[in-house]
Design brief:
CATH class: Alpha Beta
Bound molecules: pyrazine-2-carboxylic acid, zinc ion
CATH architecture: 3-Layer(aba) Sandwich
Largest sheet: 6 strands, parallel
Distance between the termini: 8 Å
Helix content: 10-25%
Strand order of the largest sheet: 5-2-1-6-7-8
Structural class: alpha/beta
Length: 204
């Protein structure tokens, strides 16, 4: 899809925050490389929404909130499997701030997610129970938006979960891979790519 044809689509920028960039608490390799790509994409889209991972200190996804919980191990939560992460994107912290070079002035809205201590939220649309809405669907629909383009961090977690939900909700959905970087934990990138394709997401 050319940048011109994207005009009617909303760009959804996922979690381009200091903690996911080199030097951050949950750094994604080469994570800051997405910033210039996304700044350029912002200029060719009619609407732009940023998401911000935004956790309270007692958040259930933090390994150090679980006795003996090792970072990057997996536990069962009432809503399903949960990876335990290093403490990251704490509400109000420097790590939770957007990357300083991200052109945030161009954003129409910021959706924060993961602010409920007992449940994680990878997707921009629903928490990890896949039911509790963030409000993004209503925001996009009330603006008449029918197509979304996604970029950001990380490809295999928050970008993939957001893209799959967008497609399921009936939005025409494209992920711009040049504007994404992955964590790639035990094959998670490969699984995410397959799941996105199966959900009808265009990988561009
Ligand atoms: C993310 C792990 C934990 C992401 C957020 O933005 O992909 N990953 N929290
Ligand atoms: Zn998080």
């Amino acid at each position: 899809m050319s940048e011109k044809q994207d005009k009617g689509a909303a760009l959804i920028v996922i979690d381009v925050q200091n903690d996911f960039c080199p030097g951050g608490a949950l750094a994604v390799a080469d994570g800051d490389a997405v910033v210039p790509v996304i700044n350029r994409l912002m200029k060719s889209h009619a609407a732009c929404v940023l998401t911000q991972d935004w956790h309270p200190p007692e958040h259930a996804s933090f390994a150090d909130n679980h006795k003996g919980g090792a970072p990057f191990s997996t536990i069962q939560m009432p809503y399903g499997e949960q990876v335990l992460w290093p403490r990251h994107c704490m509400q109000g912290s420097a790590g939770a701030a957007f990357h300083p070079a991200l052109d945030t002035v161009r954003a129409d809205a910021v959706i924060r997610k993961g602010f409920r201590a007992e449940i994680d939220s990878y997707s921009a649309f629903f928490e990890n129970d896949r039911k509790t809405p963030t409000g993004l669907e209503g925001y996009l629909r009330s603006r008449g938006i029918k197509a979304v383009v996604l970029a950001g961090l990380a490809t295999d977690f928050c970008v993939a979960w957001s893209a799959i939900d967008a497609a399921r909700l009936g939005f025409r959905t494209e992920v711009r891979l040049e504007g994404c970087r992955a964590i790639d934990l035990d094959g998670s990138l490969e699984r995410a790519m397959t799941a996105m394709r199966e959900a009808g997401v265009t990988l561009g």
